[in-house]
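Trying the structure run again after the queue cleared.
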Amino acid sequence: MRAKISYAITAAVLVVYFVLVGSRGVLLIEAGTPLTVAFGIAVLILPVIGVWFLWKNTQFVREANRLAAELEAEGGLPVDELKRLPSGRVDRDSADAVFARRKAETEAAPDDWRSWFRLAVAYHDARDTPRARKAMQRAITLHRTSQ
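Done. C-alpha cells:
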C-alpha cells in the first residue's frame, strides 16, 4: 500500500511539474518572436514526453498488479524463501539459488506467463531491475496473447 501511495504522490508532483513547464512553453510561444517560439516548442516537448512516459509506466504497473492478483488467486505466487542478512537485505547466495530455479522453470516453459512472472520477481530480488522489467513485460505480453 505504501508503494501505491508513493507512486500516486510522485505522479501528482510530475503532473504539476508538466503543467508548470507547459505553461512556460505557451508563454514563450505567445511572445511571438522566432526565437521564443522555437524555445516554446522545445519546452512543450518535455511535458509531452513526460506524460507519455508516466502513462506507459502506469500501464505497466497496472498490468503487473493484475497478473500478480491472477497468480495469487491460482495459488501460484512465489513464496518468499530468501535468507536475509541481519540488516534485512536479501542474502546474495540465496537470491542466486532461487534465481537459478526460476530461470530453469522459465526455460522449461518459455511460453508460460506465470514462469516469466516468477522470473521477474527473482530478477527483482537479485536487484537486477532492467532484466526484471523485461521479464515482466514478457509475462504481460504472453498473458495478453493467451487470452
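The mean pLDDT is 90. Worth checking whether this holds up in the mutant runs.
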